Sequence to fold (315 residues):
Amino acid sequence: MDMFKEIYELGIIPVVAIDDADNAVPLAKALRDGGLPAAEITFRTAAAEEAIRRITAECPDVLVGAGTVLTKEQCDRAIAAGAKFVVTPGFNPEMIAYIRSTGIPMMPGAATPGEMEQAMSMGLTNIKFFPAEANGGVAKLKALAGPYQAAKWMPTGGVNTKNLNDYLSFDRILCCGGTWIATSADIAEGKWDDITRKCKEAVKTMLGFKLDGIVIYDSSESAKADAKLLCSLFGFEYKETENGVSAGAVSFMKDDCGAKGCIVISTLNGDRAMSYLKRIGAEIDPDIRYDKKGRVSCFGLKNTVAGFEICIETK
Fold:
C-alpha cells in the first residue's frame, strides 16, 4: 500500500517523545490496542532511535516514523532503525533535499505559504502544518487550499478531540498529528490503559459511527400495516416508494439475498471506517461504492447480526 494512503486511512498519527526506550514496545501495543497502530517518534530525546528500532522489530504491524528530524545524521539513524517515514518540524531546503535523496517518504514542516510553495516546487505535496492552531488552524488551510490545490496537510500542534473533526472534515487534510494521545508523562508513568482509552476516544470521534436506519426485507401487505403501526404509535413519518415503505428510520422493502434485513450505520469517512474495521477483524464485502472523487461512499460487511446485513454509508 502507498505510504500516504495508509497514513490517510489511519487519520490520526500519534506524535510522541520517549525518554526511555524500554517504554517503546508497551507504547506501541497500547496504541495498537486503541485502534491507532502508528507513531511518529520525535528525535527530541536520546531514546528516539532505539525506540524506533524496538517497535520495528517487535511490533511490525505498527507504522512507525521519525519526527523532529533536524540533521542528516538523525535522518540516517532513523532510517537505519527502521523508520517508515520522516517528518521535519520546519522547512530547511538543504535538509529536505537530503531526506528526499534517501528515497524515504517524508513530510516537511511548513507554516507559511512561502514554505509550502517551496515544498511543492520540490515535488512534496504532503506537508506537516506546524504548529497548527498557533498558525491559524483549519481556517488558514482552507484559505490556502485555493492557490495550492495539490497540497495535503498533516496539522500538528493544538489538535485534540474537540477540534479533530474540524480538521478531518476538510478533504485536503491527510491526517492529524495526535500530540495529546500519549504525552511524555503518560509514557514515563506507564499509563498504557489511559493511552489506549484516548486512542479509542479519538477513533470514535473521527469515525462518528451512528445507527442510521434499519431495513427489514419484507414487501408484503403486512409490512405496510407494520409501518403504519409504528407511525401511529411513535409519530414517525410514513412514506411509500417504488422500493417499499418506511416508518421514520425503519424501512420495509423487497430483497432476495436471504438475509432478514440490513442495519445501516453512518460514518464521517468511509475510507477510514473501512480501514479501521479491517484492522479489527471485520470482513469487508467486495461490492464497494465510491463517490466521484474516488472515496468510499458505501460498503457492507460479510459479518451479520441476528440475520441482518450491516451496511456502512458515508454521511
Q: What stands out?
A: The first helix runs from residue 3 to 10. The radius of gyration is 23 Å.
